[in-house]
Specification:
Order of helices and strands: EHEHEHEEEHEEEEE
Shape: elongated
Structural class: alpha/beta
CATH architecture of the largest domain: Roll
Bound molecules: FE2/S2 (inorganic) cluster
Amino acid sequence: MLTVHRPGPAPHRDDLRALCGDRLVEVTGRADAHAALGRLLTTAPFGSHVHTCGPAGLITAVARIARAAHWIDARIHAEAFVPEPGPGAGFRAVLHRSGRSVEVGARETLLDAVHRVGVAAPAMCRRGVCGECVTPVLDGEVEHRDTVLTDDERADRMALCVSRAAGTALGLDL
Ligand code: FES
């Protein structure tokens, strides 16, 4: 296990040390974190999974380093330090490339609705921080709830896992 924190006291350090003993690798700087992560990802036993809990930048960096070390997405997991996105109004999503459309429920994410009708869409963090599910928008207004897209990028794409239609329908390049 790798824990990365600022120099000085760190939350849960004693608990982690008690749980992991000598297997706990503790680093405080970005360069040391990347080096330690590289070592762990290239020496982990076959079939291992990597789980990252932390801010968006850390999640993105870990995923990038893991992919560069030939880890597949199905073995890369993340939980971001951001609040769970709340529900919104229902709307219709038209998936132009696959010729499908789906009604998205008020308490359902667009990503889940797309998957429900059998259309493939990649995802990783499911919190709007990694960018994995970002998809081009062909028509309709978006209520953006992600923390990954820039204002310019928001002009024509959206994160399916957290963002929703601002109106009653959206057209997607899916
Ligand atoms: S799955 Fe990470 S931004 Fe949507």
